[in-house]
Amino acid sequence: MLDYVYAGIGQTRAFFSRARPEDFRSGGKAPIVIIPGVYESWRFMRPLIQTLHDHGHPVHVVAALGRNRRSLADAAATVAAYLDRENLTGVIIVAHSKGGLIGKRLMTTDDPEHRVSGMAAISAPFAGSRYARYWVVPSIRAFAPTNLALRDLGLDQRVNHRIVSIYGVFDPHIPEGSELVGARNIRLSIGGHFRILGDPRTARAVLDAVTDAAAPVD
User: Which of 38, 77, 112, 119 has the highest local Cβ count within 10 Å?
Assistant: First the structure.
């Protein structure tokens, strides 16, 4: 129940927010690109965006994603076009839920110029969710473990070592969990799929992941 309370408050806050994408684009550290979950606008992740910006990172949002109901391929292509248009390099993706799948698809398929250095994914359904098969809505059914696009993405492990997967001890939406083979997996003592976004431990884990991804390779 606490998870859905957080989601409801977050969606309400996002709806009434007057924040603009350009409000967070200043900063001298590595650029961050935010990819929210399905049915979430970028404003749903505003608290985490503010934290990253306060720590000196220019934070970019892809407003063209809207409420993020597109297929993984279309969404990844939309983000790739944004990176190209803004000529961003050394990018670190910070994503929630479906955003983690979009980010991985981008890294594996739509980033020939290697603009993305790494990704911190929070509560991402890398192995899908068995509950998705019971939904009629295509944007949710796409998370079923039997979905071919999702299966193919899971089998491609080339970029997993550049991903940090952050998740809680219990996720009511993803019984399969968010552990990703070959990635750095961080399991926090937090419950829920949404309220993990507002926990200070999550912010700390994301900041650490971003710092590591931005560090020069020897």
Answer: 119
